[in-house]
């Protein structure tokens, strides 16, 4: 699979969810105090992300 979510700990010891495509990090979440909260963030992205509009502010 070319894309996946990863959960890692940052330097502050918080759990961060990363979205990785072809071994390149595309985006990441804020740090969470629990792994469960990071997993909830992933589920929220999966649920709400497919219908997200594109806000092109370059004009």
Which helices and strands appear, and what pairs or packs with what?
Blueprint: E1 3-9, E2 15-21, E3 24-28, H1 35-48
Antiparallel strand pairs: 1-2, 2-3
Describe what this molecule looks like in 3D.
This protein has one helix spanning 35-48, and strands spanning 3-9, 15-21, 24-28. The mean pLDDT is 94. The termini are far apart. It is built from 1 helix and 3 strands; from the N terminus they run E-E-E-H. The radius of gyration is 13 Å and the shape is globular. A 3-stranded antiparallel sheet has the order 1-2-3. With 59 residues, it is α+β, with helices and mostly antiparallel strands. Helices cover 24% and strands 32% of the residues. It has a single domain, classed as YegP-like (Double Stranded RNA Binding Domain, 2-Layer Sandwich).
Which key features would you list for this structure?
alpha+beta; 3 strands; 24% helix; three-stranded antiparallel sheet; 59 residues; Double Stranded RNA Binding Domain; 32% strand; globular; 1 helix
Q: What is the fold-level CATH name, i.e. the topology?
A: Double Stranded RNA Binding Domain
DSSP summary, beta strand count:
3
CATH-wise, what's the superfamily?
Answer: YegP-like
Average pLDDT, rounded to a whole number, is 94
Cα radius of gyration in angstroms: 13 Å
Structural class: alpha+beta
As for the number of domains, it is 1
- Listing every helix as H and every strand as E from the N terminus to the C terminus, the arrangement reads EEEH
Largest sheet: 3 strands, antiparallel
| Form type | globular
Q: Indicate the proportion of strand residues.
A: 25-35%
Unreliable stretches covering 5 or more consecutive residues = none
């Amino acid at each position: 699979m070319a894309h996946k979510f990863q959960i890692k700990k940052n330097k502050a010891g918080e759990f961060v969810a990363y979205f990785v495509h072809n071994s390149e990090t595309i985006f990441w979440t804020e740090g969470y105090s629990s792994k469960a909260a990071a997993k909830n963030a992933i589920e929220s992205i999966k649920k709400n992300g497919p219908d997200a509009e594109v806000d092109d502010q370059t004009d």
